[in-house]
Design brief:
Layout lengths: L13 E2 L8 E5 L3 E5 L2 E6 L2 E5 L6 E5 L8 E10 L3 E10 L2 E9 L13 E4 L6 E4 L2 E2 L1 E2 L8 E2 L3 E2 L12
Parallel strand pairs: 1-15
Antiparallel strand pairs: 2-5, 3-4, 3-11, 5-6, 6-10, 7-8, 8-9, 9-10, 11-12, 13-14
């Protein structure tokens, strides 16, 4: 299957400092796969990317493309001034638990309705995330969940010393 988003040559370079604030949501037709302990947790060709100044993109995978039977609602919730209240999810499989492996916006604010019923996963909490066959690097730090791929340029918020950016 062809990559609908980038079908005419190499991927363009994107600087996270050119992303908007408030964030923008856009469709992404590249193949996204998330694997942990040999189990495919998500496999999709119809994700949404959320692009926000200073952050690598966050990929939101449609509910129907996620093994949601392996996820249980966590106690943690956070609030985003643009997207609304985030619900967190814990992965439980074969006696193995990964707390807060993913989050979702069950009832997002206007402007972000297209990410309702989608899950975003922390790349650093699972064994493998890929976009278009490329292995993703996790955004630095433990708060933001952006995915770094070859076309994304930083520096990225989240690492040591970046809290004031």
């Amino acid at each position: 299957m062809s990559d609908a988003r980038h079908s005419f040559g190499p991927l363009p370079t994107e600087s996270v400092w050119e992303y908007p604030r408030p964030p923008r949501v856009e469709p992404d037709a590249r193949h996204v796969v998330i694997v942990h302990r040999g189990v495919t947790l998500a496999d999709s060709w119809s994700c949404r990317r959320v692009l926000e100044t200073s952050h690598p993109p966050v990929f939101y995978v449609p509910h129907d493309d996620v093994r949601s039977d392996l996820l249980s609602r966590a106690q943690r919730v956070t609030a985003c001034e643009w997207k609304g209240v985030a619900t967190y999810w814990t992965l439980v499989m074969d006696g193995h638990t990964v707390r807060d492996v993913a989050w979702s916006y069950e009832d997002p604010l206007p402007g972000y309705l297209s990410i309702a019923r989608h899950f975003a996963f922390y790349a650093g909490r699972v064994d493998l995330c890929t976009v278009g066959g490329e292995r993703v690097k996790a955004q630095p730090g433990d708060f933001y969940g952006g995915w770094i791929t070859g076309e994304i340029l930083g520096p990225f918020k989240g690492g040591a010393g970046s809290a004031g950016w």
